[in-house]
Amino acid sequence: xxxxxxxxxxxxxxxxxxxxxxxxxxxxxxxxxxxxxxxxxxxxxxxxxxxxxxxxxxxxxxxxxxxxxxxxxxxxxxxxxxxxxxxxxxxxxxxxxxxxxxxxxxxxxxxxxxxxxxxxxxxxxxxxxxxxxxxxxxxxxxxxxxxxxxxxxxxxxxxxxxxxxxxxxxxxxxxxxxxxxxxxxxxxxxxxxxxxxxxxxxxxxxxxxxxxxxxxxxxxxxxxxxxxxxxxxxxxxxxxxxxxxxxxxxxxxxxxxxxxxxxxxxxxxxxxxxxxxxxxxx
Length: 282
Fold this sequence. Notes:
By secondary structure, this protein is of the alpha/beta class.
């Protein structure tokens, strides 16, 4: 398992990751200008430069993040995945992290039909390129109370429907336990149930403010927040153990959204997260 964090791809971040002790990074596709990836020649050149830079610092790119949750025509989404899958293949990166996206005005069943239309072809592209597609279970809820989502694939019922609709081994999850915690979903049971579908992992904690929860209830703001691993309620030893039990040995990236260690304290947060998780991920 590679321990990393989610960031832009550039030399400063590779140098920082290496200095802290990380051995992997999940990087945004938007790290590269759009026109740089539009031609096969451009993708080949960009991939070679990225591989050389990664090798210089001994940090592996474990996934390329293409977090497009906009409700767009299937043809546009398919074209984007075709480009990024080829770029991943050129770089030797095995995972595209992404979103299911979806139309918040439509039902789950209707969104599954759109998903099938799009990802039947995307799955074939991924299989041909030798890469996996990993859907992050970000709820993407539009306000409070949470009733509509721009990213419908954020809970186990949706995952089952997604993978039934497009039964390809290329499709799976970027499993983030932090999103399940505040939905009161058993994240350990979900790991064991969907183990073969876990292609990448986000390492983010969730802090529950019990006083605010008991006073305001679950449909209010401010009773939970995302934290660096070790500062919330997730049992990281149990979580990593469950991942190892199901045979996961891929990339695991801290998604740093901790408001305490933000801004000028970002690096402090990355160091604290690394120090908490490194004994578990060797």
